[in-house]
Amino acid sequence: MRHAQGYLDSPWPCEDGGPARLQTPQSGLGFGLQTGERLHCVTRRTCLSTMTVLGAPGEVYLLTHSALRAQLGLPTTACVERIDPHTLRTLQRSPRLAGGPMWPGGMALHRDGDLYLVYGRFAHRLDRSCQPLAQLELPMNEAYNSFVVLDNGLIVTKNLSTTRPALLSVIEPGALRFAAAHIRCPEPSVARLSAVGNTVYVVGVRSIFRLHWDSQAGCLRRDETWGLDYIGDSQQSHGWDVVLDSEHAWFMDNGQHRYRIRMVGAGVQQTPNRLIRVSLKDATDHLKINVSSLPGGSITNPPLVDKQRRIVLGYDSANRVLRAWRIDPSASTLSPLWTKTDWACASHMLLYPDTGELVINDYRRWGEEVAVLAVETGQELARVRPGGITQGVVFPSVGWERDFYWSSMGRIARVWVA
């Protein structure tokens, strides 16, 4: 697997394992679950957990943020902790970091060895002991929803925008200063950015487009030859994060929802949500397919693509449907592979390419459960209940052993095989 060059060489240096959002580890092996083996977990209550990332062997970092101040219209803050990889107790903690409007931010380990964080309207650089080194205020007084690191090491971020065009900012690591003029997008954008190499992909509220870094001019330039108006004359709402599999871009729409503690029944549009594929070579080569064909379909996260097995997973969180398709050689059609109804997944996932094991959540009986499935068959291999009433919609990560970390807003869990 190609290592994302802008990040630390770690099994999981950032959300989704890399800026292409394949939700696979950069290195390491799957569980290889055997008959009689089970999942066990230890949990810890947190303020609002967003993600964990891995540094050197044994290093696990946790990102959390405050919430109550947002109810009063006050700026919120973030915090980064280095936690014990087994017990989850805090080993080192940052001070409260300046933020602003509340929205789950993002954290990554840059190839320069430091931690970088975007939360609220601030970017921060921290050392591996979680101590601040630099801070940068971002131009919009809105929540910024994370960032990507390009292969050249530059950091690209944007505000979460629903009514006015989003603004892209490029940041130099180290001193944390703007590396180029800000780029105003042609439309608002809610989804997080994705990237491959030095190209950034943006899912706007009605179209997907991309920008390449022009090293000679020192700026991002929009690729006017590639893009798709995925909304068209439909009644769909905006798309979420896009997965880039080196051949195609994959994402889902109907992203507007009423999430409070769960995505079940939270759909807004009375149309089914769709899985959308766009060729990276030619955007006129695209496909849109209903996930469940049930009204009120909605999601808040990306699909999952298994490049090795040519499988794509889509889901309808609002209607509790999970589906897998086989991608044909030309990707012009998708062949149904398996379907699970009454399966309430909503979070980002983990896929172990060597074993085909998929880590996914399932919200049932007013509580979060996490399961391991065989991606080719949908067979359930193991399940555990970390506890809590909130359905996770954020970011898990792999661990250093036969384990992984599951963030679900109000708690962090370590799940391991025994």
Q: What report would you give on this structure?
A:
- With 418 residues, the protein is mostly beta strands.
- It has a domain at 60-345: 7 Propeller (Methylamine Dehydrogenase, Chain H).
- It contains 1 helix and 33 strands.
- The strands form 7 sheets. Strands 1, 2, 3, 4, 5, 31, 32 and 33 form an 8-stranded antiparallel sheet that branches. Strands 10, 11, 12, 13 and 14 form a 5-stranded antiparallel sheet that branches.
- The longest helix is centred in the first third of the chain and has 4 residues, at 68-71.
- The protein is globular.
The whole-number mean of residue pLDDT values reads 96
State the fourth-level CATH superfamily of the domain at 60-345: YVTN repeat-like/Quinoprotein amine dehydrogenase
The shape is globular
CATH C-level category of the domain at 60-345: Mainly Beta
Q: Classify the beta-strand content into a percent band.
A: 35-45%
Tally the beta strands. 33
